[in-house]
Design brief:
The structure holds two protein chains of two kinds. Chain A is mainly alpha-helical. Helix content of chain A is about 65%, strand content about 0%. The chains are: A mainly alpha, B mainly alpha.
Chain lengths: ~110, ~600
């Protein structure tokens, strides 16, 4: 088992989380969230990888050819769609925050405390 | 109609109607949209009732395979919808609350566009999908659909700065939880090559719980606990519910957060119960549950913003539900199921009643509202009924559920949990009763500026610009009245205790679940129903005790200016602690993400330590 993709997954997840925790700009927060999500893409593709496998499209390759796991690819593409939706929604909310509050810095947005 | 057709229909019907309404939206008058959306939600509720009847007959589960990809010789590559009475019951709650919320919206919103109706219907479909699925990845997809729609609904009043900020905090926190869940799912798939609950459980059964299994479990439940608003994953809750439209809050508190608890129980009992011993997770989950119950209760009583007050009441009760599930005994689950059944109606009704106050009086802070609710006798009566139901006064279903769960705790050797149940329900009920006494009867002096609050939250948050005059519309009083009456009626329903005992035992039976889903011969005999006690003299006593305590605490907080000086000194000593607790709820999304990480590390560390 190659350890590198798992390490990359962990790195992306933690780096993105650090971005969210330390962010001073909501756009940066949402992009950091996308970095966290990238960790899930890498992990999904790693799990489905088969050494020497080709793309799982049996139109022009004989049955029995070694292919990578098609299921995780379906999962990863679903994940991408979910990510795009959530990012778009959160970015539009961030724009609205800026329009209404005049700032994108969460440190200056304290009206919801307590 | 075959029962297997019901489950896909409960998901496709509301989504299809939502799409149709958005397509035609501009051309349909508001009332037509209202009626169409309400009728769709009511139809889903009726379908869910038929489904419950179908699941209640042997062998206990209704299974539908998408595209007809049924399993062959116990192997499955298809995607299944598997419903048992617990999932059907939750679907009924979701659909009934959605119907009530939509009826309520007829007059709650002056102007509302088709997107609100469409989002509510998609929200309902996602909740149905979430409880009906038998596939782990599908569960994640429904989780994300439910979440994305919930963010949009929270920020529905997009012209208000607080609304969008609350929605953003909600969205970021829940998304991190969801990604943790997805990583947990991926690790499980790496190990087993399966996503179906039944196949996963069969594959993992008997394996030693190694680091990968533990990590996958901890990450998987992180997302669910975030959705469930369990401390310390709960920080989004008050922010979102302080700003979301009232009908949406009713759905959040009434059913959405409870679904997080359901998911923890479902995944543990179908997937992990053969590998992770109950002893490994009982302690940690109980600790999280008790922490939520206490923190939620204290924060609830400390609030003056009445929507935040109800949000923390939800956090507190979710803690009690988690405690019931974490007992990992059929009786604990049975009690929690009944408790949720009652609590859904009570919590939703209280939010709808707060909405009446908001609309009539144009404010949401106890201080601004002091004594101004005099001309609203029905609203006042219903709010007080909701308050005592929150305390678990027998014979409300909340009281019955609490009684069964307390009893299960005692049986498992956790007698001290009774104190947590009594205390948490008394604190939350006291907060509601105090609010009612101040707003409707003007008791006590108008609340002074709260010494523990430093935010501007008390003076802001008015959602309604103009205050309509005249009576409260009937469509805004009938839904909460019906919900409260249902919570009362369910508590009186004979035979509920016996039925829920069998249902809970079946929920725990991993082997029967797996063989029925995978088309293998079902093991005989069926698990015996756990004995569920119902109301006993002791549990009625505890119910009366928490109601009495609630009234006492409410009276003390109202009369605090007349209390002897030394009691105030004692109270003042506790202030720094409370102030610190409130300061943690900073409204800063980065802080919330950090607490989520703390929660994951604590849960993971605790489970690993126990397993050694």
């Amino acid at each position: 088992m190659n350890l590198l993709p798992y390490l990359v997954t962990g790195w992306l997840f933690l780096a993105g989380l650090y971005g969210v925790v330390s962010s001073t700009n909501l756009i940066h927060t949402v992009v950091s969230l996308s970095v966290v999500q990238s960790a899930t893409y890498v992990l999904l593709l790693t799990v489905g990888f088969r050494t020497g496998g080709t793309a799982p499209v049996f139109a022009d390759i004989p049955l029995g050819t070694a292919v990578v796991d098609p299921l995780v690819q379906a999962l990863a593409s679903t994940d991408v769609v979910v990510g795009a939706t959530v990012s778009a929604l959160l970015l539009s909310l961030a724009i609205q925050v800026h329009k209404r509050s005049g700032t994108l810095n969460p440190d200056e947005l304290r009206s919801l405390s307590g | 109609m075959s029962a297997a057709l019901l489950t896909p229909l409960m998901i496709t019907l509301p989504i299809g109607m939502a799409a149709l309404m958005v397509a035609l939206g501009g051309r349909l008058p508001r009332r037509v949209l209202d009626v169409l959306a309400t009728a769709t939600a009511a139809t889903v509720a009726a379908l869910a009732v038929v489904l419950l009847v179908a699941t209640a007959t042997a062998p206990g589960r209704v299974i539908a395979w998408a595209g007809g990809w049924t399993p062959r010789q116990g192997m499955s590559i298809g995607i299944a919808l598997v419903s048992d009475p617990i999932s059907a019951g939750l679907a009924i709650i979701a659909a009934v609350l959605a119907t009530a919320a939509l009826v309520y919206s007829w007059r709650y919103f002056d102007a509302v566009d088709v997107y609100f109706h469409a989002l509510m219907l998609v929200f309902l479909a996602a909740m149905c999908g979430f409880v009906l699925t038998g596939d782990l990845f599908d569960m994640f997809v429904w989780f994300e659909l439910m979440s994305a729609v919930a963010y949009a609904l929270t920020g529905y009043k997009i012209e208000e700065a607080q609304s969008v900020q609350g929605a953003l905090n909600f969205g970021v926190t829940n998304s991190i939880g969801a990604f943790c869940t997805l990583i947990g799912i991926t690790l499980l798939y790496d190990r087993t090559g399966a996503l179906n609950f039944a196949a996963l459980g069969a594959n993992l059964a008997g394996q030693r719980p190694d680091a990968l299994v533990v990590a996958s479990f901890v990450l998987l439940v992180t997302g669910f606990l975030t959705k469930a608003a369990v401390v310390p994953f709960h920080f989004w809750t008050a922010d979102a519910e302080a700003v979301a439209p009232i009908p949406v809050c009713a759905l959040f508190s009434g059913i959405m957060v409870e679904l997080g608890i359901y998911a923890v129980a479902r995944t543990y009992w179908t997937v992990y119960s053969g590998t992770l011993p109950p002893s490994a997770i009982r302690g940690p989950l109980l600790a999280f549950g008790v922490l939520s119950a206490v923190v939620g209760g204290v924060m609830c009583l400390a609030q003056r913003h009445i929507k935040r007050l109800l949000a923390f009441s939800t956090v507190s009760h979710i803690g009690l539900f988690l405690v019931g599930v974490a007992l990992l005994s059929p009786a604990g689950l049975a009690g929690t199921a009944v408790y949720i059944l009652g609590q859904a109606g009570v919590e939703a009704a209280l939010f709808l009643l707060v909405g009446v106050i908001l609309l009539r009086l144009g404010a949401v802070s106890e201080r601004d509202l002091h004594g101004r609710g005099g001309g609203m006798p029905i609203t006042a009566t219903l709010t007080i009924i909701g308050g005592v139901a929150l305390a678990g006064l027998p014979p409300f279903a909340t009281g019955l559920g609490k009684a069964i769960t307390e009893d299960a705790g005692v049986t498992e050797g956790f007698g001290w949990l009774v104190a947590v149940f009594v205390g948490a329900s008394a604190l939350t009920a006291a907060a509601v009763l105090r609010m009612a006494a101040r707003v409707f009867f003007g008791l006590g002096s108008p609340a002074a500026k709260d010494p523990t609050s430093r935010g501007a939250d008390e003076d802001e948050g008015e959602e309604v610009e103009e205050v309509p005059t005249g009576g409260v519309p009937r469509t805004m009083l009938i839904p909460p009245a019906v919900l409260l009456a249902t919570a009362l009626g369910l508590g009186l329903l004979p035979g509920l205790g016996g039925a829920i005992g069998q249902i809970a035992s079946d929920f725990f039976d991993r082997a029967a679940y797996a063989s029925q889903v995978l088309g293998l011969p079902t093991p005989e005999p069926r698990t015996a129903a756990v004995h569920v006690s119902g109301f006993t003299a002791a549990s009625v006593g505890y119910g009366l005790l928490s109601t009495g305590l609630a009234v006492l605490i409410a009276a003390l907080t109202i009369l605090r200016s007349r209390l002897p000086r030394w009691t105030l000194a004692v109270a003042r000593a506790a202030l720094p602690l409370l102030r610190g607790l409130r300061a943690l709820h900073s409204g800063h999304v980065g802080d919330y993400a950090m607490w989520l990480v703390v929660g994951v590390v604590a849960l993971g560390g605790a489970v690993s330590l126990i397993l050694g």
